[in-house]
């Protein structure tokens, strides 16, 4: 088994960028999901509610700057890390405050998606613990990602899912990996073999599995066209439903630091 893809998503719910290598920190890949969007009341806003966020891409320029780009019109803006600014209240679980971006950034995002939003940054990457209910242990931390530092998805699992979709709906188009927003894509395992891995070594870094990933309606939105459909939730509900949820992919917590690279060997552990 080996790594066939790595991706970093600097802003929660925005598009990210594939990379050839990435540094692993306790909270996840360096620069991954250190930003998110909130409304005027500080409530976190994701693409589940605001589909147009998927039209915006975010990429890391350097340690202090990211760039946002709207694929619809090519508009872009640079965002500086808001060092030294006072934090504002936010509704993110186990993280009551975050640091806001400059007003011009917030105005740009609000104009692009047609809704007043504020971009906020997680200043202390070790400040948010992983909930015990989501597999967290003392000392485990996470970025602004939903419940775990990294998401791993298998190409063979996606192939199986697409076969089920076509079987249930002849003529249906296969889904792209982009739907599932993984940090790490692997190939060479049996479909859904990752379900039972308690740990896995990827290149020089060992990870503990915290939980499988329950999938939400966000996966039913085409990240390119923004068209909404019933897949993959409809098919996952037929084949991968238990405990009242549908499951695809697995969440990992690092047991140490290091570098991940496309092509790295993937070795499950116990």
Question: What's this, in brief?
Answer:
The chain has helices at residues 103-113, 155-168, 233-239, and strands spanning 2-8, 17-19, 21-25, 28-29, 35-38, 44-45, 56-62, 65-70, 76-80, 88-89, 97-100, 118-121, 150-154, 184-187, 199-202, 205-214, 241-242, 245-254, 258-261, 266-269. It is mainly β.
Keywords:
270 residues; mainly beta; 9-stranded mixed sheet; 3 helices; 35% strand
Describe this entry's structure for a reader.
This protein starts with a strand and ends with a strand. Strands 1, 2, 13, 14, 15, 16, 17, 18 and 20 form a 9-stranded mixed sheet that branches. Strands 6-5-12-11-10 form a 5-stranded antiparallel sheet, with helices on one face. Strands 4-3-19 form a 3-stranded antiparallel sheet, with no helix packed on it. It has helices at 103-113, 155-168, 233-239; strands at 2-8, 17-19, 21-25, 28-29, 35-38, 44-45, 56-62, 65-70, 76-80, 88-89, 97-100, 118-121, 150-154, 184-187, 199-202, 205-214, 241-242, 245-254, 258-261, 266-269. The protein contains 3 helices and 20 strands. The chain is mainly beta and 270 residues long. The radius of gyration is 18 Å and the shape is globular.
SSE topology:
Layout: E1 2-8, E2 17-19, E3 21-25, E4 28-29, E5 35-38, E6 44-45, E7 56-62, E8 65-70, E9 76-80, E10 88-89, E11 97-100, H1 103-113, E12 118-121, E13 150-154, H2 155-168, E14 184-187, E15 199-202, E16 205-214, H3 233-239, E17 241-242, E18 245-254, E19 258-261, E20 266-269
Parallel strand pairs: 13-14
Antiparallel strand pairs: 1-2, 1-14, 3-4, 3-19, 5-6, 5-12, 7-8, 8-9, 10-11, 11-12, 13-18, 15-16, 15-20, 16-18, 17-18
């Amino acid at each position: 088994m080996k790594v066939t893809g790595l991706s970093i998503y600097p802003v929660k719910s925005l598009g990210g960028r594939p990379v050839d290598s990435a540094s692993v920190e306790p909270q996840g890949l360096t620069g991954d999901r250190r930003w998110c969007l909130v409304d005027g009341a500080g409530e976190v806003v994701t693409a589940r509610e605001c589909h147009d966020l998927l039209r915006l891409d975010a990429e890391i320029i350097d340690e202090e700057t990211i760039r946002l780009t709207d694929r619809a019109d090519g508009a872009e803006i640079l965002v500086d890390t808001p060092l030294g600014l006072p934090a504002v209240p936010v509704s993110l679980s186990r993280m009551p405050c975050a640091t806001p971006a400059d007003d011009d950034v917030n105005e740009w995002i609000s104009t692009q998606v047609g809704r007043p939003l504020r971009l906020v940054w997680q200043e202390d990457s070790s400040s948010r613990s992983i909930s015990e209910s989501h597999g967290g242990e003392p000392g485990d931390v996470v970025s602004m990602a939903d419940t775990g530092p990294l998401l791993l998805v298998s190409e063979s699992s996606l192939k199986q899912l697409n076969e089920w979709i076509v079987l249930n709906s002849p003529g249906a188009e296969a889904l792209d990996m982009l739907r599932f927003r993984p940090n790490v894509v692997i190939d060479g395992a049996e479909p859904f073999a990752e379900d039972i891995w308690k740990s896995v070594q990827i290149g020089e870094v060992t990870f503990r599995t915290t939980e499988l990933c329950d999938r939400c309606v966000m996966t039913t939105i085409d990240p390119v066209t923004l068209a909404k459909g019933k897949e993959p939730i409809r098919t996952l509900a037929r084949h991968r439903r238990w405990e009242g949820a549908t499951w695809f992919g697995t969440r990992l917590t690092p047991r140490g630091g290091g570098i991940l690279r496309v092509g790295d060997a993937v070795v499950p552990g116990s």
